[in-house]
Amino acid sequence: MATEEVKIDTTCVFCDIIAERAPATIVRAWPETIAITPIDPVTPGHVLVIPHTHVTDVAESPEVSARTMARAAELAAEHPAVNIITSRGKPATQSVFHLHLHVVPRVPGDGLLLPWTSRP
Predict the structure, then answer these.
(1) CA nearest neighbour of 13 among 101, 98, 89, 93
(2) Residue 101: in which H helix or E strand, if any?
(3) Where, by residue number, is the active site (predicted)?
């Protein structure tokens, strides 16, 4: 893997967490990525995987996105069923504009509906 310059956005909450200027429960840390517990996890074990370098979303840097997905896949391997979800843009439900992947463990009957799940 090539080493890249880490970009920081001083107005970004995830950059603040990475720089240890904001609190977070860090579940795992790698040289280029961290996994944290979100403020409001939707299932037990739900984590966010966040690259150290500030990229707005999955499309901005395929290299950063691929490394972040590799770390999410490591965490997903620890569960028998899991969703890995990221969003690009407000219409796609992105609310923090720093790439992050949700690793959401699933169990039968957990009742969690995804945004694109048909509702009765």
Answers:
(1) 98
(2) strand 101-105
(3) 100 (tele-amp-histidine intermediate)
Single-letter code of the amino acid located at 69:
M
Q: pLDDT class for 1, splitting at 50, 70, 90?
A: very low
Domain locations along the chain: 13-105
Q: Would you state the pLDDT for residue 2? A: 46
Instruction: Tell me the CA distances in angstroms from 64 to 33, 40, 53, 100, 111, one per residue in order.
Output: 9, 25, 8, 11, 32
Type and span of the H or E element at 48: strand 47-51
* pTM of the model as a whole: 0.90
Is residue 46 part of the annotated active site? The answer reads no
What CA–CA distance (Å, rounded) separates 68 from 47? 13
| Candidates 46, 52, 54, 100; catalytic one | 100
Report pLDDT digits (tens) over 47-93: 999 999 999 999 999 999 999 999 999 999 999 999 999 999 999 98
